[in-house]
Amino acid sequence: MTGGEISLYGALALGALYGAGFCYRDKGPAGLVVKTGSTALLALWAYLAGGPALLVVALALSSLGDLFLALEGEHWLKPGMAAFFLAHVAYVVLFWELASEERTLPVLAAQVVLVFGGAFFVRWLSPYLGAMRVPVFAYAAVILVMGAAALRLDTAYWLVTLGAVMFIASDAILSLQLFRKPADEPAGIAPSLAVWFLYFGGQALIAWGMLGAAL
């Protein structure tokens, strides 16, 4: 078994473990290691498999974001968002360098629905953001551009497109948990599972689609 295969299997195992045992309750040090390790191993897999440098950078920055968001205290939210912001910048540049579909009406329609739907969602959420308003607006802008870039990709990269959409869906659910859920109300199991598996599954599909890997 190669180092790349070990990294991939390790990432999938840690991702499943975090979803099964940590994402819907207090994480503790073990949860932090499992969460951060899952995306870090995806980055290692991309590197060992000879993937594009921007893919490795995006996954590594995502792992750093996971680390910040797993730490206790709201003051870690901004560093976590900053790491993911930079990860999405890397994805935007990466996706824009890939082969794209012709500028068809369905592609344009999907991009319009995504961007305007996302903008309306953030506008609806804005009264609840408080001091996080500017960071959330900036983050929403870059992730929507990332999604629009993924939607234009050639059908050969359909897994990348699906993964990007899953990533956006995960962040939409997470934003509701962060800014609309009462602070004293515990996170529900269903939304916590949805956030994690959409996020981790999306990242894994982006990497899988980029590398063209198969078990």
Properties at a glance:
globular; 215 residues; 8 helices
Topology record:
Layout: H1 3-21, H2 28-48, H3 53-70, H4 77-96, H5 105-125, H6 133-151, H7 158-179, H8 189-211
Helix pairs in contact: 1-2, 1-8, 2-3, 2-8, 3-4, 4-6, 5-6, 6-7, 7-8
User: Roughly how many Å apart are the termini?
Assistant: 11 Å
How does the overall form come out from the CA principal axes? globular
Q: Look at the helices and sheets and give the structural class.
A: mainly alpha
Uncertain stretches: none
Helix content: over 70%
> What Rg is obtained from the alpha carbons, in whole angstroms?
17 Å
Strand content: under 5%
Number of strands: 0
Number of helices: 8
Largest sheet: none
Average per-residue pLDDT, rounded, comes to 91
Description:
The chain is mostly helical and 215 residues long. It contains eight helices and no strands. The chain has helices at 3-21, 28-48, 53-70, 77-96, 105-125, 133-151, 158-179, 189-211. It is globular.
